[in-house]
Amino acid sequence: MSSLLSLSLLGAPALAAEPSKPAAKASDASRAETARLVGAFLGDTPLLSDLQSLVDEVGGRATGSPANLRSVEWALARFREAGVDARKEPFQMPGLWLERSASATLRGKGLEFSPRIAAMPFSTATPKGGLTAPLLDAGRGKEKDFKALGEKAKGAFLLVDTTELKNVDDLFREYAEAAEIEARAFAAGVAGVVYVGSRPNNLLYRHNVSEGMRNTRPMLVMERDGALRAQRLLRTGKALTLTAELELQIGPAYESYNVIGEIRGSTRPDEVVVLGAHLDSWDLGTGALDNGANVAALIDVARQMKRLGIKPARTIRFALWNGEEQGMYGSEGYVKTHEAELDKHVMASSFDIGCGRINGFFTGGRPELPPLVDQALEPVKGLGPFTQVDAPIVGTDNFDFMLQGVPNLVANQEPALYGPNYHARSDELDKCDPQQLRLNTAIAAALAYGFAQMDAKLPRQSRTQVEELVHTTDLGQQMKSFGNMLEEWTSGKRGRKGSTSAGPANR
């Protein structure tokens, strides 16, 4: 790692990317400060001990849980111990959803067994003693499968087959397919949906119901081996009933908190660069990959900047979001709270794909943005190559900045162990590569400092420009796959309002 970082600061040609257009050069002063900052991550920083503390001592941090409230105080303490100004900012969660217990029993003539299950977030609870209904084989949940079931689907639990998940592409496919499956199931009047677990080794995990908080049915994931056993029985003609008992804590809107650390700009303090990672996690594992590793990274970037006396020109805000897993509500709350400042937000980034190597950034369908990312990363190009993907992406905390027209980035990371452990019981500390996490932290630091120092500032897009992005890319389809995001944009509940003119010109 030491050799890699040393080469990066020298701009080693063997490791550098071959960009289609040369990146603008950072100033000598900025390169020197970046070298000092990046070099700090070679030393004995608290990065890894912070991550261990967060996942082992605080644990899984579902928004609204006692552990999540502890994580807020934990993060505030880490920032303040480092001498970084920090505060907690309230925002409104639209409702509370936590699983307390979940169990299932399958019965048929001469047989009974109880595979493990997990409630899907925004599932409804069952009556005390459980809800019993026939279990039917719904194949892959395609339109033809529902036509074959016909009226039998009404009032039944449907068992939906899945492909074993291998990578992040499979994960996004699952989200897209689930939205279509659930729409068909709800239209058919089912009692509930049971997904065959897509993870190996009977791992349980959580996926949000596509309808979000509007859902009206029990929805669950069943461990793969038990669900496949049930599927085989059904396909050999056995009649089965399922009794599902879901004890959930469900409540009305409530107040939660983001944690904001800030290093105020020295010459342009009203202009803001946001580095973001979500503090919350689901509760089956302890949230090391999703997203404790990046929380610890951002805290360490702030710590080392403060320790070294690095004074960025623009203000850098280190935002640790809550409510991300339920629908990016913490970052949505931030853009509402800071609406009057958004014209001065130069860039908002999100780090949310575990510990895999950062190989570039999604730049949101703004062709003028990739060259600026190249410029910011130029001092650490030896940690690349970095390739920017100029496409919008939904599913993390860049989303509401994008809908508000703010230039936004999402770290594009190699999936490593991320996909199979996503939202799963196995999302634990041992899945994170500590050396790669240090390198990623160095990249995040260079990105933040680069955007804080560069002269360029892109204009904020108007609502009309964002609307064009929705219609000319797959952004609209992505929004459909994540609950009612598209509806919230179309209705004006979410995203930029008013002006249809472009923002101020570049300078």
> What class would the helix/strand composition place it in?
alpha/beta
> Main beta sheet: strand number and arrangement?
8 strands, mixed
Q: Which strand order does the major sheet show?
A: 3-2-9-5-6-7-8-4
Number of strands: 15
The number of helices is 17
Output the radius of gyration.
24 Å
The N- and C-terminal alpha carbons lie at a distance of 37 Å
Shape: elongated
> Can you tell me the residue ranges where pLDDT is under 50 for at least 5 consecutive residues?
1-20, 500-507
Helix content: 25-40%
Mean pLDDT: 92
Strand content: 15-25%
Give your account of this protein's structure.
The chain has 507 residues and is α/β, with parallel strands linked by helices. It is built from 17 helices and 15 strands. It has helices at residues 2-10, 28-40, 47-58, 66-81, 143-149, 168-187, 224-235, 288-308, 324-327, 329-337, 370-377, 399-403, 418-421, 434-453, 463-472, 475-481, 485-491; strands at residues 85-93, 96-108, 111-113, 117-119, 131-137, 157-160, 192-196, 219-222, 240-251, 254-263, 268-278, 314-321, 345-350, 358-362, 408-413. The strands form two sheets. It has an eight-stranded mixed β-sheet, with helices on both faces. The protein has a seven-stranded mixed β-sheet with strand order 1-10-12-11-13-15-14. The longest helix is centred in the middle third of the chain and has 21 residues, at 288-308.
